[in-house]
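sry for the spam today, last one i promise. struct tokens for design, 273 residues
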């Protein structure tokens, strides 16, 4: 895929990560040149949520952001954090609540605390009527149960960086959730199952993301010297999804862009395709 698209949306990039400190502007230039016109900056704790919102306010034609606490840091949640996240979520440039959810793979925070903090985010989403940016790893049953309980009170959301089973995919689609696909689908080792099931994601529920600086697509040729992922590599996710689904790359690009604008209420002027 040698030609850039006109208006891809990377719905999840951790550009507040310190690996981008020295060449942030160049990273954005490369993204824009590749056709990635809108980048959603992921908030994963207090400082990254604040920083992401600040970037979005400064460059509203390029960025939007999320605000929330990743389950890894759920044990840092307190009343002050809740107040700050609620304030951030009220801003126009902050378009989703999260990253939030459950991670029973690493258990960096106690599971009971993760459940409590996830529910706090669901309550904020209910109040703000903005979508959720969700994380779930090895915690499908309790995650799905809580999400299902709140589903009719919230606007919706995306299960970000989906890597689970066909059964889990069916559950999320039954709740009319969007599904975010990253460079995990480009990994021939651990992404084989995902490569098989992405064709079951309806075209109107597919979103694409890099999760930069993580999950560098293994299929990139030539291989980048750095292991750091960045938004310009979103094109490779599109290419692999086209290969796995039998759809045209341009179709994947247009559908995912349309879906991102619909879910997150992105400014219409930046749709392009």
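last one done:
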């Amino acid at each position: 895929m040698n030609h850039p698209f006109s208006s891809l949306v990377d719905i999840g990039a951790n550009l507040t990560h310190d690996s981008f400190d020295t060449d942030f502007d160049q990273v954005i230039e490369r993204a824009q040149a590749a056709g990635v016109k809108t980048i959603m900056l992921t908030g994963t704790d207090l400082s990254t949520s604040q920083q992401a919102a600040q970037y979005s306010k400064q460059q509203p034609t390029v960025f939007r952001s999320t605000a929330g606490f990743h389950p890894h840091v759920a044990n840092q949640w307190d009343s002050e954090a809740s107040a700050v996240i609620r304030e951030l979520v009220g801003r126009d440039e902050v378009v989703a609540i999260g990253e939030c959810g459950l991670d029973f793979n690493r258990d960096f925070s106690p599971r009971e605390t993760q459940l409590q903090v996830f529910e706090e985010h669901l309550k904020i989403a209910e109040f703000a009527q903005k979508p959720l940016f969700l994380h779930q790893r090895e915690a499908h049953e309790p995650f799905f149960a809580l999400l299902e309980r709140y589903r009719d009170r919230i606007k919706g959301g995306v299960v970000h960086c989906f890597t689970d089973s066909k059964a889990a995919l069916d559950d999320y689609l039954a709740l009319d959730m969007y599904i975010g696909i990253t460079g995990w689908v480009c990994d021939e080792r651990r992404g084989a199952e995902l490569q098989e099931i992405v064709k079951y994601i309806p075209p109107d529920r597919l979103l694409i993301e890099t999760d930069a600086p993580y999950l560098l697509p293994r299929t990139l040729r030539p291989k980048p010297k750095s292991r750091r992922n960045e938004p310009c590599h979103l094109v490779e996710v599109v290419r692999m999804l086209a290969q796995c689904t039998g759809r045209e790359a341009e179709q994947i690009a247009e559908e995912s862009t349309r879906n991102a604008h619909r879910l997150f209420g992105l400014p219409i002027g930046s749709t392009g395709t």
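Residues 111-128 form the longest helix (18 residues). ok im logging off now
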